[in-house]
Amino acid sequence: MAQLEAARATYAPALEAGERITAFLRSVYAWMAGGLAITAVTATAVASSPTIVGAISGSRLLFWALVIGQLGIVFVLSGRVHRLASSTASMLFIAYSALTGLTLSFVLLAYTGESIATTFLVTAAMFGALAGYGTLTRRSLEGWGQFLFMGLVGVVIASVVGIFWQSDGLQFVITFVGVIVFTGLTAYDAQKLKAMALATPEGQIGSYAIVGALTLYLDFINLFLMLLRLFGDRRR
Predict the structure, then answer these.
(1) Residue 45's Cα: distance from chain center in Å?
(2) CA gap 172, 151 in Å, rounded
(3) Residue 91 lies in a domain
């Protein structure tokens, strides 16, 4: 009897941690899937409305307001998550997903529907495999962090340079490196979610799950865009 009690005392914390991680990850991926659905519906609706497309494309102020709004939401969710109620975090995430749909509507107009659908399926398969690896592997991916961060900074800087210096070669390099960076980030961020699940205070799990969903959502969207630039067929 004493041995049974000792076994329970040993394995109960591990079981509780496992259940906590499972519940947290379930919430993260549910929010991520919901965000992608909102983005897809918004992008499709806007792309099919010449009035809205004309208003956005005809006003640089409106376009940059959308971009700044997206960045602002990311900074608020990431930097103030410990102060946000779950309801506030969820509203911000939904707003971000919709704003992303507005800007991505131009992607639907630039590429053929077949290449968008094919690239989405490829991205989903890659993302699922990488996220699964990051979640299930016992190997620590912590060492990837600095390398991936440096690669991300390099992609951002090169992208800014590419706005002023139009070069097909530069764009190809940026896109190729971007695929590598966001491939690594998907596995890296998926593994970090397990630690986040255990470190999050009980009353803030909802808010932190949304931040985790935002992280993976960004990995997915950026990987999709990079693959689309490499393999997508533009409309004639």
Answers:
(1) 21
(2) 15
(3) yes
Distance CA 128, CA 12 (A): 30
What is the torsional sign of CA 198, 195, 191, 82? positive
Pairwise CA distance, residues 196 & 54, whole Å: 42
The reported pTM is 0.87
236 belongs to a structural domain: no
104, two tokens: 């991505």
Number of domains in the chain: 1
Whole-number Å distance between alpha carbons of 31 and 212: 9
The two tokens of residue 230 are 């490499």
pLDDT for residue 7 is more than 70: no
Rounded Cα distance between 213 and 94, Å, is 11
Condensed to tens digits (0 to 9), the pLDDT of residues 102-132 reads 988 888 888 998 999 999 999 999 999 999 9
Q: For residue 204, give its domain range.
A: 2-231
Sole residue written with tokens 């997206």 = 70
Neighbours of 148 (CB within 10 A): 20
DSSP state at residue 232: P
Residue 144 lies in a domain: yes
